[in-house]
Amino acid sequence: MNQTLNAQQQQAPQKVAMPLRIAILVLPSTRLCCDIQSANPLEVLLPELYQSGLLSSKEGASEQIVNIEVDDFEANLKASIQAIDEGKLVQLSTPSQSLLMMSALKAAQLRIHPHAQLAAIQQGDAGVQQTMALALAQAKRDIATVSKVENLHDLDSQQKFAAVHQLITELACRTRFRDEVNQGVTLGPKQAKSHYWFTPNHQARVTAVNFSHSVNNISAGKQINASFIITQGTGFIAPKSIVDSQRLQFVLSGDTQTELLTALSSLKTELLAEPNSDSVLTVMRDNLIAFEQTNTRYAVTLQASSVDAMLLEISAMIEALPAVMAEDGQHSYKTPAGSYFTSEPLGNVTTAGLAFVYPGVGTVYADMFSELHRYFPSLYSRLEREGDLKSMLQADAIYHLDANVAPAMPLGALAIAGVGSSYLLTQLLMQEFNITPNFALGYSMGEASMWASLGVWENPHDLIRKTQTDPLFTTAISGQLSAVRQAWKLDHTDSEIVWNSFVVRSPSEPIKTLLPEFPRAYLAIIQGDTCVIAGCETQCRALLTKLKKRGIAANRVTAMHTTPAMEEHSNVIEFYTQPLRDEYPQDIKFISAASLSGDRRDKAVNEAGAIDSTMIAESIADTFCHTLDFTSLIHSAQRQGAKLFVELGADRQNSTLIDKIAKLDRSCGAEASSYPCCTVPVNAKGGDDITSLLKALGQLISHRVPLSLRPLIDGLDREIALRELNSAGLTHHNGIISGEPDANKLLKGEV
């Protein structure tokens, strides 16, 4: 089809219509007016329009907006374009959907960020492909830049408008929606129905929609076609609210048990008096605002899916709190819904025990973070401008229609996506919620994620291409395993290596005792009550047999943390020798698994203050090429002051391991059992992204970690404004029309 369109574009007339350059904004389903009485909710929902002065009550403001009800789509568009050429703004709408249109120049002058731009319209009977080719020529776009094409037949005017409205909405929220059957592949029940709309680096999203309908006249089978080229604008739809009437969160504070119980009882009374979903939003917002202004010793976070469920959570917390506050109590209480309280805050300024933990290779999974962008669009927009977000998250594999593609990713792709997921979540916590750790550490290649994510390396995105092509990841420690062949002194005549790794429930000492009998099997990782052995599959299985243990095969080829990896030690140093930023975090202690013995024992990499790129690269290489003792790494972090371990990456595998390590310490009375230890996963495979995030925030709040609740409060402000606008819609004399507003169709400029 691309070759046909390119040929048709070349055959198009030399004189092509100029691009339209019409800016489009998705509105709440309400008719704009300039009456000052409607200002309160709209000021929250349409801040840019208010700043422009178009919605003021000043004389002449109302004359700038022309309202057109959709009844003949093509004719309505023609009238809209004519009005826009005359300097007007046009609101084109149906009872349930609405668009605001103006010239792109006017939008720029008013500092309004449009959601999309209408670049071309072509009509005729020359065929769909030729009409589309003419439209692309008018828009000055090549078919290769078009990332989505819709071909729709025999729709009425309102259906056509709805289709265009939907396309603009997808552009504005950067969301790619999936059909139940895509390219012959049926989506599984656990697959995401949508995900972020990725594009090649620095390439805008361009869409085409083609309408066709048959005409009954003497020319049998004649078809009239209309093609529209719509490109993304500089704005995006405002964030979905993290908390709402189906995802409630309250935070109560106090310095004593009595104060907490009183606050819980007061909230219960308030909710019983205001049980409807509209009023609970206001109660929730006011509660969060009040909490931000407090500085108490304790905090209780409550989460539930409804008011009734919240009342049950409050009752459960009232019953559990005295036991938690007792000196010999368990120090924390958590419900499946996410409510949380601890009597031993580990992350406050005084304790300074907050540690970011970065997982290693293999934690990423299909469709991870598929909804996160709808709640944090400015974050995704910034990451997209800073680098190749699509490559950073390995989107072609992670969001593939076939859910089996992601688990089969090669080592290099897994490494890139692992760093990318950690980088994204780190930016989310630090930039959106103003959370800064006191410590940072990584599991295996999580050390690279640590340096990349926390603003130490100047250009972490440069590692994406290197990881995809460098022999270190493609052939040395994976694939053909050239480093292993060199260590084993094999030549081209020897057979291929059959390599595997196995997770075995066993202490490390019995495995170490048997290793001399199996020289091509290695103890790769020590992690609590389990270990990972790797190497020649035959020898690994023989070792397991003699150990009288069953091993779970990972079926992944990587020689990291084995003796043969030392063949690549200098190459690892070279690979990770990256320029540092002029200014990097000075208050975070970076802990490495390479600092577990000798002079470096229990010392952060930056213990002496200044760090350089070689120091970081050598630390990564030492971890990369030796057995990873994750148990000792956690113990070392604890001795240095880490207490609250927040996992920054896909899934929660490290949190599970740390919990097991702490449990093992307590059971055997180890020295480390005296150190407080709590884990907080930010993400969990199989769970809802935002629910997992809210649960993590709830724990951090109760642990008194300094953070901002502004994203939650701002979202509630928008939710409340929409409901006010909707409830007032039919009562206003100036003709605001009512309809069920979409909570996501709000205006927001990119920042």
Provide a descriptive summary of the structure in words.
One of its GO terms (molecular function) is transferase activity. It comes from Shewanella benthica KT99. This protein is an alpha/beta fold and 751 residues long. It is built from 27 helices and 26 strands. The strands form six sheets. An eight-stranded mixed beta sheet has the order 2-3-4-1-5-12-11-6. A five-stranded parallel beta sheet has the order 23-18-17-25-26, sandwiched between helices. α1 (2-11) packs across α6 (128-139), α15 runs antiparallel to α17 (462-469) and α22 runs antiparallel to α23 (613-625). The longest helix is centred in the middle third of the chain and has 22 residues, at 411-432. The protein is globular and about 85 Å long.
Question: Given the structure, what is the number of helices?
Answer: 27
* CATH architecture name of the largest domain: 3-Layer(aba) Sandwich
Q: In angstroms, what separates the terminal alpha carbons?
A: 37 Å
The CATH superfamily label of the largest domain reads Malonyl-Coenzyme A Acyl Carrier Protein, domain 2
Oligomer: single chain
Shape: globular
Rg, Cα atoms, Å: 30 Å
The structure class reads: alpha/beta
Report the uncertain regions: 34-39, 730-751
User: How are the strands ordered across the major sheet?
Assistant: 2-3-4-1-5-12-11-6
- Sheet with most strands: 8 strands, mixed
The share of residues in helices is 25-40%
The domain tally reads 4
Brief overview:
The chain is α/β, with parallel strands linked by helices.
